[in-house]
Backbone:
């Protein structure tokens, strides 16, 4: 893999995708909801039907690779904090533009799914 492949939009093989730990641009949010499991399942199921996904501790990791072009990862988690489950989202990308795009896609979908419950997603970068 060339060092700049994720920046040029060239297609790279899945085995050449960078590890999450190698991606410098990250963001996360904890979404205030009384039903974190429901929304995590809905979000992971929606994207998992279109993108590669894998089970990780506390949830699902989605690999955004539309048309073979790797953009980054998003984690959809139900994580216990002080003994209470919370919905946590995290994104990982090679640059700020891709990170913000992933955050907008994942957060926007969640807000639409939770519109009746007035879910709001506020990312920390």
Residues:
């Amino acid at each position: 893999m060339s060092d700049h492949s994720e920046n040029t939009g060239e297609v790279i093989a899945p085995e050449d995708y960078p590890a999450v730990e190698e991606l410098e641009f990250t963001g996360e949010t904890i979404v205030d909801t009384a039903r974190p499991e429901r929304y995590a399942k809905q979000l992971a199921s929606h994207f998992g039907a279109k993108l590669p996904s894998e089970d990780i501790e506390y949830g699902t990791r989605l690999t955004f690779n539309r048309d073979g072009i790797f953009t980054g990862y998003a984690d959809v988690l139900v994580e216990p904090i002080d003994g209470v489950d919370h919905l946590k989202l995290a994104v990982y990308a090679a640059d700020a533009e891709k990170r913000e795009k992933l955050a907008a896609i994942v957060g926007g979908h969640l807000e639409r799914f939770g519109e009746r419950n007035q879910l709001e997603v506020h990312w920390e970068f």
Summary: DSSP finds three helices and five strands in the chain. Residues 74 and 106 are 8 Å apart (CA to CA). The helical segments are 5-8, 36-48, 96-113. The radius of gyration is 14 Å.
